[in-house]
Sequence to fold (367 residues):
Amino acid sequence: MQKVFAIIGIFMFTYVNGQTKVVTNKLDFIKNKITKKQSDIVFNKIKAFPENTQVSIAIIKEGEVSYFGAKCINDEVRYANNSNNVFEIGSLTKLFTSTILSNFVLESKLKLNDPIQKYFNIPVKNKEITILQLANHTAGLPKFPSNLDLNKADQTNPAKAYDEDKLKEYITEGLETIKTPGTSYEYSNIGAGILGYLLTEYSNLSYEGLLKKYIFSKYGMTNSTTNRQKIKAKLIEGLDKEGKKTANWDLNALVAAGGVLSNVEDLSKFALAQFNDTNKELALTRKSTFNSSEEMEVGLAWKIIKPFSNFRWFAHNGGTGGYSSLIALDIEKRNGIIVLSNVSTFNEKTRNIDFLCFELMKSLVKK
Fold:
């Protein structure tokens, strides 16, 4: 099962060492929301996180949603009513980018196997790369562009200065590949950023405009946006690796790779829509496009993992300087778990958010 956590990519830069912390369990399970077993899973996975850590969870069991939250405060883990609170969701954004792409494909506006050069009015240095390869991380691109110097960037907001001019410069002069396009899975944030830029250029809409038209309005996601100024609900403050308040990230031209803010109530609507067969655009994003290993196939952004025999889960996680998240769905069983948190992707224990999500998924499996 632990192999699962190594294969799901997130918007992150590196991991660093931190310190663990033991807290007292004051987390009572709530009837019709969470079982005692699930409550214990939550406590055990977040007890080592810093003061003021929060997790917000949607539990989807056979198509029915319940919400549960927890907070580390005063050396205790307590229940938190935070399902409406907003978090940065990091690379879960890529699921939305691929959903927009899927709509374009079904509307016959573009084809997945077309080279990206066909849809740009600027020269593209590498003319082999296709739209599909950007969406399923087989373009052979690195995680980040060569003209984004992370050593010189603001470490609390590293992509803030990476504007459209920088992205266009990379597309025309950079676009170096580390693997031959189409031959292997190489998780790439710059690939997703380029895909989002292509979709905005082709449609003459902003990325926020595309999200509203194809996703937020359709699925009733009223608290999701790329613009912090538009957030109506409470925004939970992000924490750095040491548990101190940290700045939110502005991903600028890379917004399509990780710039959305949302809550579990909105994301549960997106998840439930995956169970509706009439949503052909969502089904297309889940269709396998590349076999990466025995443990994982890749759709359009979705990772298709096989934790047990006869089970297929669709999953993706995300992380920014102050947050980490994960969504996992079992389409056949109509089960799912969504976890949002203000645990920094740089926290030494950030993988506990992955473990939390997948152990809760396992708790939904009928024996």
Notes: Confidence is low (pLDDT under 50) at residues 1-7, 10-20.
